[in-house]
Amino acid sequence: MSFPASAPPPPSGSAPPPGPPPASEPLLVPLGYRLRDEFCCPITRELMCDPVIASDGHTYDRAAIERWLRSHQTSPKTAEVMQSLDLIPNHNLKRLVGDMLKEGGAGLYCRDEDYDPEKHPPGGPQSRVALVREPALKFSCLGPAESSWNGRSFRAGTGGVVGGRRRPEGGGEFVQFTDATVSRSHFSVTHHPSPSAAAGEYRIQDLGSAGGTFVRITPEHPREIRAGDMFMLGKHQLEVFDPSAPSKPPPSSAAANDANNAESDSELELDMKDLSLSSPSPPAPASASSSTPAPPPPAASSAPLNPFAHLSTPPVLGLRCFAPEGTPLQGRCFPIHPGSSSLGRKQSNDVSFSQDVTGSGDVVGLDSSISGCHAHIVVGEDGKATLRDGEAGSGKASTNGTWLRLSAMHRTSEPHAIRPNCEVLVGTVRFRVSGEEHVVERDVKGEAPPIAGDMAGAGGERRRRPELERRPTELDRLREEEKVVERGEGGESKA
């Protein structure tokens, strides 16, 4: 692939790369060329990966214009007031950029008329630009309808993102929420190298939120569970515990590393009908039910109470319901024995979310968001327990999903690997995750190699990959503006 014949010839000794590089290799742009205006975002001055048309008639990269509109009501091009905040995907331009990248990327660039070859001799210390393919995750909001994120999306690149209601100290990409169930510093998404995947892997981490961060468990990807894990069916949340282990008090919200969230989240007024944000309670005697008959009142003792001490066959694990606040099942414990145990709204399930609430003998479901046969837990001969969504043997997923909670309230979780086509829940805001690959410009550190054969040396062998650094853009300036807005004139953060 060569540069267009209509363009002036490139500087002596330069040559375009023969074709698109692999995902792990950068494509060095020949000296004397610049990105064409029609492919350049007016805000970031970088190649547009997801072009959209705003109400001012101009095309921008989606991430850049969405960030701009969070703090501006005017057009970044004309400075006139935007008539609408709606963004229309520019499918033709996105397809054109993709086609040109497949052909080597030469068509994206044109001759830079301001380039002076005498000031930039080949091999000298000068700024070089490389096009680099980077993996990314796109988070598309599925609801609820009242969320400000409904119908919108954000992208997590290799630099990662942090999400919450208030920007944390320091730089980096920030995703802001206004939802009451989202904490000031709620979650982060980071990229990590992986020996099993050339593109690495992404991991999500709860930063000690109150509302929790959840990952959906699917029939195709069951989850091994152990004592201390928590998961949610419908609006009910359960904690897994070891019946033979001493009882532990609920997690303290005064943990040093989570003190900031513990203080900031005290102002949240949450709708407990949608999601309870309380921590798991200590083991409590089980109420009279078909699943766990109530044991006799224990004598006063300092020894921990085992809710299954009256059972002839001790269970492998126990489940304790701790949310939502006020549910008749709150504090109730359910035994999990070897084999398969079903969970659902029907009374016939081993863990049933139904009860005779009136005392008339009529059993009713307590949570309409839970399916009749919602999920099941399989305990193998090795004693390992696996949580699976859907009815055993059906292969079908439940309607509203089974969700793994990454950590207890005000507790920072371990990073959890996420993959494309999964779903995550931030408080009560639901996202579908999809994978994509976008092309970004990076500056080359140090001296530029000779122009001739930038990508391949004699004999066709590929040269050592140059060191790359992120280019500061107009988007970085916007982030700094947002920080100024969020701070008072005296430099202290506003409450």
UniProtKB/TrEMBL annotation:
Domain FHA: start-end pairs: 161-215, 341-409
A Pfam family assignment? U-box
Q: Where is the composition biased (Pro residues)?
A: 1-24
Q: Where is this region: Disordered?
A: 1-25, 240-306, 446-495
Where is composition skewed (Basic and acidic residues) in this entry? 460-495
Q: Where is the composition biased (Low complexity)?
A: 253-263
Q: Name all U-box domain ranges.
A: 34-107
Alphabetized InterPro entries for the sequence: FHA_dom (IPR000253), SMAD_FHA_dom_sf (IPR008984), Ubox_domain (IPR003613), WD-SAM-U-box (IPR052085), Znf_RING/FYVE/PHD (IPR013083)
Q: Which PANTHER family match?
A: WD REPEAT, SAM AND U-BOX DOMAIN-CONTAINING PROTEIN 1 (PTHR46573:SF1)
Name of the protein: FHA domain-containing protein
